[in-house]
Structures are given as C-alpha cells and as structure tokens.
Amino acid sequence: MLERLLRLDYKLFFHINNVWQHPVLDAIIPWLREPYLWAPLYLFLLLFVTINYGWKGFWWMAFFLITFGLADQSSLFIKDAVGRIRPCRDPLMQHFVRVLVVYCPGSGSFTSSHAANHFALGTFCFFTFRHISKWFASLFFVWAALICYAQVYVGVHYPLDVIGGGLLGIFLGGMSAGFFQRRIRLEPELAT
C-alpha cells in the first residue's frame, strides 16, 4: 500500500514538474512561493483588522503570528522525524527534476513548511473572516493551494509533502481559530 502510494506520488510529481510545464508558468510560479510577493496581503490584513476591530485586531494579529509559529515549528519537527529527502536533492530523482529556484533547501521534504504555514494561516483567516463573506474567506484556501502547487512545480517538494503539510496546517489553523473565536471573536467596535 505504502509503495503504491509513493509510486503515485512520484508519478504526480513528474507530471507537475515536467509534463504540465510551460515557459510562462516557469516565469510566474516561482514567485508565488516568495513571501515578498504576499507582503501587500499581510499589510492589508493588518490594516483591515486594526481599523475595523480596534483592540481585537491586535489580538487577531497575535493569534495570526502564533498560528504561523506553531505550524512552522510542527512541520520542522516532523521533517526531522521523517527525514524524507527532497526531490531536488534525491540522487535517484535529481536528474529528472526541473529545479526552478536558486536554492534547494537541505532540510527534509515531509511535511512542506510552506504548505503547513499557509494552510494554517488560510484556515485561521477563513474561520475568523467568514462572518464577513464565506466567498472572500474561501479565497485564503485558494491562496494556500497555489503556494503548495508552486512548491511541487519548482521541484522542492513531492505532492505528498504538500498534502501532509496542508493537513497539518488545516488542523493547527482550525485549533487556533477555534480558540480565538471562543475567547475573542472579531466584531466591529461600537462607536460611543
């Protein structure tokens, strides 16, 4: 069973990294995984919660950062425990891998920290913003999924790595959002 799952993982990786590629995507997709590209989103969220929710916005920012930290450290712990080699470093795979980034990290491959972090933040944002619009809040999952796809496309993770990271992130983001929603909850400040 595990062998069949890994074979499917390699096959899907090969399709995403080699078959389903295009020069335009080669130019765009590596940028999706860059934190600087998403800085305007983070700035917008910071301003949005501060302006609309007052002191609760500051608590939201604290939980946002805590959620990120939990996901990142949990993923690093799992990487060290599992020790899966990244496709761009695997001696059996590296000749078949198109690496579209300058640097192939030396850390383990399972779970993807990008996937864990972004799905944790996406889940946290979904549950804390869905009172505004479920459609708007759902876009955070699209954002996280694009970043995960980019990790495989550029050759630094296998699909199972990002799926594992995504599930870890959804779990941690859901726990963090659940606690936040029970204790604080974003509601507009009432003018006095």
UniProtKB/TrEMBL annotation:
<keyword id="KW-0472">Membrane</keyword>
<feature type="transmembrane region" description="Helical">
    <location>
        <begin position="59"/>
        <end position="78"/>
    </location>
</feature>
<feature type="transmembrane region" description="Helical">
    <location>
        <begin position="162"/>
        <end position="180"/>
    </location>
</feature>
<feature type="transmembrane region" description="Helical">
    <location>
        <begin position="36"/>
        <end position="53"/>
    </location>
</feature>
<feature type="transmembrane region" description="Helical">
    <location>
        <begin position="135"/>
        <end position="156"/>
    </location>
</feature>
<dbReference type="Pfam" id="PF01569">
    <property type="entry name" value="PAP2"/>
</dbReference>
<protein>
    <submittedName>
        <fullName>Phosphatase PAP2 family protein</fullName>
    </submittedName>
</protein>
<dbReference type="InterPro" id="IPR036938">
    <property type="entry name" value="PAP2/HPO_sf"/>
</dbReference>
<keyword id="KW-0812">Transmembrane</keyword>
<dbReference type="GO" id="GO:0042392">
    <property type="term" value="F:sphingosine-1-phosphate phosphatase activity"/>
</dbReference>
<keyword id="KW-1133">Transmembrane helix</keyword>
<dbReference type="InterPro" id="IPR000326">
    <property type="entry name" value="PAP2/HPO"/>
</dbReference>
<feature type="domain" description="Phosphatidic acid phosphatase type 2/haloperoxidase">
    <location>
        <begin position="61"/>
        <end position="177"/>
    </location>
</feature>
